[in-house]
Amino acid sequence: AAIWFAAQNGWQSAMLAPTEILARQHAATLADRLEPFGVNVTLLVGGMKAKEKRIALAAIADGRANLVVGTHAVLTDTVEFKNLGLAIVDEQHRFGVRQRGLLAGKAQSPHLLVMSATPIPRTLGLLLYGDLDISVLDELPPGRKPIKTWFITGKKRRDMYGFLDKQIAAGHQVYIVCPAIEENEVMGDLQAVTTYYTETACALLPNRRIGLLHGKLKPKEKDDVMQRFKAGELDVLVSTTVIEVGVDVPNATVMVIENAERFGLSALHQLRGRVGRGAADSCCILISDNGNDAVRERLQFLCRTSDGFAVAKYDLETRGPGDFFGSAQHGLPTLRVADLVQDTRTLRVAQDEAKALLAKDPNLIDPAHRALSDEVERLFETAGAMN
Fold first, then answer.
1. Sequence-separated (6 or more) residues with CB below 8 Å from residue 123
2. Is residue 363 part of a domain?
3. Contact (CB, 8 A) for 167 and 229
4. Phi, psi of 184 (to 5 degrees)
5. Degrees (nearest 5) of the Cα angle 40, 14, 77?
6. Residue 310: closest CA among 265, 260, 257
7. Residue 103 belongs to what domain range?
8. Within a domain: 94
């Protein structure tokens, strides 16, 4: 709706997605919804041919592209908007502060909407997005059923594959996620996705149509595999976490995650959300042979709840903010005094004080604020290096 209103008032919109698969999916969906109302949707991703890219860049520059949907390619210097009025970042935790700034910098103070399907504890939200108004959607879309989650060890893998075969026989599809792309001795028994595909999935489901998807495939190959899965031409998709964000296949009812201990709970919850999008009952199966009690408790906790905010709080308490999204936060400093779990009220007061100070001295030029100004500059230099 915001994109449509922007177009009606003569402004362009840009929507940034972290992967080509998701960008192409968004472009197709939004074109279907908006082009009947006269909104031109233009795709811009790194995997496009040179001629396609030139046509897209020209349409963006002269304003014919009302909405530009793309990946990091949208942030490059070659992209010039005629009049960008709305910037949207999907799955924003995949982007750094600097990257969001680059998108907003394509125009004079465009409206900015950032979105994430990963539930974020309120305290972390205050720190990460203190300059934004935060809206929380904490309910399932109408008609969605809760996803059952089970935790098993590798000993039950063969039995699980019997269950998968029955699901496929009933007309459903299956995701299997592995954390690694190829064999690596340092990883020990970590399931490498290419080896797993040939030696486990194809061996245990010999008569089923199985696809392989990982980040090292060429963009066209990735798109082809994903489109075949979406079209029902594949029964099983063996993949890395490239399918974590946004991919929508309502007929997929089972998500299997190998070496589940390698993921944070929030990442597992995000993966679990790839199923349960249709009318059929869906489930998520976590496989791990890790004997550590704390690891097993984490996985069993996920089996007990489907509340993403409870998952996020547990992840924050047990793993800390640095690991919250599976990697160090973009530009998020280590707290030296406050506790993200216990000190919500104090952090809120600190945020209010910061807003009041900036209202009086937005550029921190008062001599009394010199030390604070120096610290902010140092922090942004660090954040820039990380991005």
1. 316, 340, 341, 343, 344, 347
2. no
3. no
4. -150, 115
5. 115
6. 265
7. 2-115
8. yes
Task: Give the CATH number, domain containing residue 41.
Answer: 3.40.50.300
pTM higher than the cut 0.85 = no
Angle formed at CA 221 by CA 252 and CA 41, multiple of 5 degrees: 80
Q: Give the whole-angstrom CA distance, residue 197 versus residue 182.
A: 11
Residues 181 and 300 in one domain: yes
Angle made by CA atoms 143, 145, 15, in degrees to the nearest 5: 70
Q: How confident is the model at residue 329 (pLDDT cuts 50, 70, 90)?
A: very low
Structure tokens at 269: 């919850």
Domain count, the chain: 2
What is the DSSP secondary structure assignment for residue 387, as one 8-state letter? -
pLDDT in tens, 15-44: 999 888 889 889 999 999 999 999 999 999
Distant-in-sequence, close-in-space partners of 314: CB < 8 Å, separation ≥ 6:
265, 298, 301
Are residues 159 and 90 part of one domain? Answer: no
Q: Which residues contact 143 (CB under 8 A, 6 or more apart)?
A: 279
Question: Do residues 44 and 68 make contact, with C-beta atoms less than 8 angstroms apart?
Answer: yes
Same domain, 74 and 169: no
Antiparallel, parallel or unpaired: β 111-114 and 84-89: parallel
